[in-house]
Amino acid sequence: MRIKFLSVILSFLLMSIAISSCLDSDDNYELSSDATIRAFGIDTIGKGIYYKFTIDQLKREIYNVDSLPVWADTIIDKILIDTLTVTGWVTSGLADTVFIMSDSVDLREPIKLKVHAADMITTREYTIKVNVHKQDPDSLIWREMAALPVSPAAGKKKSAILKENLFVYTSSTTGYRSSISNPGTLQWSPITVSGLPADAKLNSIVSFNDLLYITTTSGEALYSDNGTSWQKMDTQGMKMVTFIAGIPADDVTGSKKILTGICSFEGKNIFCAKNIEEANWKMNEGKEAIPADFPLEDIYSTVFTNASGIKQTVIVGNTEATVEATMPWFTMDGLTWADMSTPSDFFCPVMKNPSIMYYGGLFHMMGGDFSIIRSSRVGIAWEEAATKFRYPSEKVVTPGEDEDDEETIEYKSLFEGKGDYSLAIDENHYIWIVWNSDGSVWRGRLNKLGFAIQ
Fold first, then answer.
1. Name one Pfam family in it (predicted).
2. How many domains does the chain have?
3. Position 18 pLDDT exceeds 80
4. From the CB of residue 180, how many other CB atoms can be counted at a distance below 10 Å?
5. pLDDT at position 28, please?
6. CA-to-CA distance for 347 and 332, rounded, in angstroms?
7. What's residue 316's pLDDT?
8. CA-based angle 271:274:279, to the nearest 5?
9. Which of 117, 134, 198, 431 could form a disulfide with 35 if both were Cys (CB 3.0 to 4.6 A apart)?
């Protein structure tokens, strides 16, 4: 035991001598060659918002994935780098002057920082780039596109999007088509429509699952996979009044894709629906008549995911009943619908030919005289949309009545008073509006929905 104990003591003494020798030698110091930036950040923007920066060590680039607001240029022209973690020291500029964090820098353009390792030899140069939005993300921007070659005749028409094509039907045998794969331009081509009866209700067209569906006043239902040739659907003897909307599949509830509509049964209108993978139609339980104020014409639909993660299809349209407000309706299965009424004073005023969309995180309602857009968080309480989310407008200046009175400035919607329209939204979030009065076509999109996802 004593021998083992003495050997342990001897080992410790030898290690101590070795360590002392290293400490006493000026030739054995080994300084770090680490010349990397471990962390980077700038001062807060706006109301104390801190933007996270990504460090790409391979490319030696530092940048923010989430772009700063469009107005941030007026802040980052003189801002502090408040986080810069390195092992050695940092220089900047052509003269390689020592970088001092307490000095503000101009980050409107990329800058370069050079990191020097403690070994006095190793260096790495990083490019710092601060991304700033060039457009206001919350602005709805409109552009007038190529008008239809011939102004449509009086009466309602319908526009629909199918497989990257925008179709505008002017009758049961004629229409126009343009590709929207390049939304910057429209090139209209006349089309000859086949298979549609003369009593086809153009304003009943529903685009769903790469097909168009339509009904007739005589109760027939038809579909098309190319927008030009139409075929009859088997409705098991049901007389179809109109299609309402398509309901997408929902992973939460396990439901499949469903086509919804209204059919006539024993002298009353009832809700009906079918799984598009099945042949049979279903009627609502009890075969109860639809509510008197449920829309029957010019129906527009949108899809909203509620707080439980369940998809709801929401619609508005023209109703035969006299109503005091424009009220949306929603469903999850197409057979049971409920209105989205509100007990408050924040209902949406009555609109002629309303359309609805869940767009940019809010519900929006367009239509009526097209003077303002109404918005809602969950489709119940409605208010005038944000100033940036408006129709295209022109500036109207009214002089004061007297010399001392200031002039008043207003913005008047260019859509106001244009009359009947049809609206469609494509997969790139462009809103397409075609006007019946003059055949003009407008395209709009919320800026942030066009930003590329980093």
1. DUF6242
2. 1
3. no
4. 20
5. 60
6. 23
7. 96
8. 135
9. 117
Q: Is residue 306 in a domain?
A: no
What burial letters (b/e) apply to 183-208, b meaning 16+ CB within 10 Å?
beebebeebebeebeeebbbbbbbbb
Which has the minimum average pLDDT: 93-97, 113-117, 196-200? 93-97
Q: Tell me, what amino acid is at 374?
A: R
Q: What is the CA radius of gyration of the chain?
A: 33
Residue range 385-427, pLDDT digits in tens: 998 999 999 988 887 777 777 778 888 999 998 988 999 999 9
pLDDT of residue 27: 56
| Residue 316 Cα distances to 24, 181, 445, angstroms | 86, 28, 21
Q: Give the amino acid at 146.
A: A
The CATH number given to whatever domain includes residue 104 is: 2.60.40.2340
What is the phi/psi pair of residue 353, to 5°? Answer: 55, 60
Half-sphere exposure of 324 (CA within 13 A, CB side): 6
Residue 422 identity: S
What's the token pair of residue 165?
């094509």
C-alpha 129/C-alpha 236 separation (Å) is 64
In angstroms, rounded to a whole number, what is the distance separating the alpha carbons of residues 395 and 2?
A: 101
Q: Residue 17 above 70 pLDDT?
A: no
How far is residue 60's CA from residue 371's CA, in Å, rounded to a whole number? Answer: 51
Task: Read off the tokens for 42.
Answer: 């700038």
Tell me if 187 sits within 8 A of 226, measured CB to CB. Answer: no
**What's the length of the chain?**
454
User: In this structure, is residue 218 part of a structural domain?
Assistant: no
Domain with 118 in it: 39-129
The string of pLDDT tens digits covering residues 345-356 is 889 999 999 999
Token reading at 317: 């349209």
Does residue 71 fall inside a structural domain?
Answer: yes
- Exposure on the CB side of residue 10, measured as CA atoms within 13 A: 6
Determine which helix (DSSP H) or strand (DSSP E) holds 91, and give its type and residue range: strand 89-92
Domain contains 266: no
Residues 6 or more apart whose CB falls under 8 angstroms from that of 442 comprise: 142, 143, 144, 145, 392, 415, 432, 433, 435
